[in-house]
Write a structure and sequence with these properties.
With 534 residues, this protein is mostly beta strands. It contains four helices and 37 strands. It has a twelve-stranded mixed sheet with strand order 11-10-13-14-33-32-35-36-29-28-25-26. A five-stranded mixed sheet has the order 2-8-7-4-5, with no helix packed on it. A five-stranded antiparallel sheet has the order 18-17-20-21-23, with no helix packed on it. A hairpin with a 4-residue loop joins strand 32 and strand 33. The protein is globular, with a radius of gyration of 32 Å. The termini are far apart.
Length: 534
């Protein structure tokens, strides 16, 4: 008996299977979604590092691969997708952390972010000209509980590294610099800068921009009007070596020797003369030649142009400084004035078309308050007056606490010891920098290592004799904490644009006190943008 085959149904079934297969191929072309959840981007990492990724797919995630640059760290095939690796197997530095997710059809997606492996607690590069004659400096690294980790004495041109102990997992450390400068046998000062609760740091201690060495001089003669004063600044462009001379009123003829520190062809001299009633005059001499004499007449000086009239709040002392950028590179002083007494207004002047852009700095001192600001904008023509104050609970350096009513990136408290006689002057300045957390400041003195304590008798003399002298409020552009400021301040390539500084003298006789603990600033200080000028 012959069985009749249903060819139509057979082909229909085959076609349906083929269509279903094609449909499955077409639908599964969607790659997984992946994000690296930990660590976050630009994070410093040390010891064992945990990496976590969040992955989703419209079908099913097959696997996730983790890479450090192009090196495969490992693979995870089940959620949660994570792994750990020992960062001490790699050199300190910046890396690309990558996570690559696959689904069952081979679709893939990559997530990446920059991280920094930093198993050192601190790296310090000391430039060749950082320490001068008669100057010594130490760096001390400690735990936030006061326990010492390491200390060392600096030498020019060297690089230092403090490694993280294997059993130390804390994110924060304390760092202290102790700088001792002996000017002569009877004049000595020690500055101590203590930074609290920092993350691991990479510092460059910059050498001086200036050099006192001289290869010779040139002579300049010029005329001054009666009651006119003069400033002469001689610069060497490549290393910014300089010398500055100031002449008092009443001298009508000058014979000045210009100090030259290096190749004469790179040197130039800037002169500005001023009176109280007329715009100041300036002269600019380029390419100063060694042993040459320059004679200037009154016609060689050009009047400066008025940049801004500035109205001021009540004050005791005002200092105005204007700097100009020359040849799109270095910045130089072009105008400065100081005033004492209750000055209600001052005028800022700049040379005509000589510099490409200007920055100014203004200092106002009034009672217990010193206020400083810098800006690349024009000075304000009128200052408004806000208020700042604080209340000290405990002003001992061993354990200091205070309430603050002003928002600052960080605060620095100064304790000072002074020994002064007719023949001797010795000072210890101990600054402790800290964040302001919810209006509170709490700091604790770090212990001085025995080798430093024994080396300097002045530190031993200051023990139990340090008195709280100032509280300083700082705001910088691009900074929201002490740690953020320190990272940028010790970066040789970074330059702050905005800067503000308010200092209150806690020992000033006009400072308001309550039971010797409460200090309220009775004066008001403007709060605006501030610019650092190098």
């Amino acid at each position: 008996m012959m069985i009749k085959r249903n060819w139509l149904g057979y082909y229909a079934l085959v076609l349906a299977c083929l269509l279903a297969s094609c449909k499955e191929e077409i639908q599964d072309t969607v790659a997984p979604n992946i994000s690296i959840m930990s660590p976050t981007t630009d994070t410093k990492l040390w010891l064992d590092v945990s990496v976590k990724a969040e992955v989703t797919d419209d079908q099913k995630v097959a696997s996730v691969e983790f890479y450090l640059d192009d090196e495969l760290l490992g693979e995870d095939t089940e959620a949660p997708y994570e792994l750990s690796f020992n960062s001490k197997q790699y050199e300190d530095g910046k890396y690309a952390l990558k996570a690559l997710a696959y689904d069952g059809r081979g679709n893939q997606t990559e997530a990446r972010q920059e991280i920094e492996i930093f198993n050192a607690l601190l790296k310090v590069e000391v430039e060749e000209s950082y320490l001068k004659n008669g100057e010594e400096e130490w760096v001390v690294v400690g735990k936030t509980n006061g326990e010492l980790i390491e200390s060392f004495m600096l030498e020019n041109g060297k690089v230092y590294r403090v490694d993280r102990p294997e059993d130390f997992l804390d994110e924060e450390i304390n760092i202290m610099r102790v700088n001792r400068n002996e000017f002569d046998d009877s004049n000595e000062s020690i500055h101590i800068w203590q930074h609290q609760y920092l993350k691991p740091q990479n510092w460059t201690l910059k050498g001086s921009m200036y050099n006192d060495d001289s290869i010779g001089s040139a002579k300049i003669n010029y005329y001054l009007e009666q009651n006119e004063s003069s400033n002469i600044s001689t610069y060497n462009v490549s290393r910014r070596n300089w010398g500055s001379v100031y002449y008092e009123n009443g001298i009508t003829e000058h014979n000045a020797m210009l100090k030259i520190a290096e190749v004469p062809a790179r040197a130039f001299t800037y002169i500005f003369n001023r009176t109280n009633n007329e715009p100041p005059r300036y002269n600019w001499i380029t390419s100063i030649e060694l042993d040459k004499e320059y004679n200037l007449t009154e016609e060689d000086f050009t009047p400066m142009q008025l940049w801004q009239n500035i109205s001021l709040p009540l004050n005791e002392v005002v200092i105005l400084n204007i700097r100009g950028k020359y040849n799109n590179s270095e910045v130089y002083d072009v105008y400065w004035r100081s005033f004492s007494g209750n000055v209600s207004s001052i005028s800022a002047y700049v040379p005509n078309d000589l510099f490409e852009e200007y920055k100014y700095g203004i200092t106002i001192k009034n009672g217990p308050v010193l206020y400083y600001k810098t800006s690349s904008d024009k000075p304000d023509n009128l200052y408004e007056i806000p208020q700042v104050g604080f209340e000290i609970d405990d002003n001992s350096i061993e354990s200091f606490s205070a309430l603050v009513d002003y928002e600052a990136d960080f605060v620095s408290n100064l304790w000072r010891y002074r020994y002064r006689t007719d023949t001797e002057l010795r000072n210890v300045y101990w600054y402790i920098d800290s964040d302001v957390k919810e209006g509170n400041i709490e700091v604790q003195q770090m212990n001085i290592p025995a080798e430093i304590y024994e080396r300097y008798s002045l530190i031993r003399d200051s023990k139990n004799n340090l008195s709280h002298e100032q509280i300083q409020f700082f705001n910088y552009d691009g900074v929201s904490s002490l740690n953020g400021f320190i990272e940028k301040a010790y970066d040789a390539k970074y330059e702050f644009n905005e800067f503000e500084f308010i200092l209150v003298d806690s020992e000033h006789p006009e400072a308001k006190t309550k039971e010797n603990k409460h200090i309220q600033n009775p004066h008001d200080i403007i709060m605006r943008r501030f610019f650092n000028m190098k």
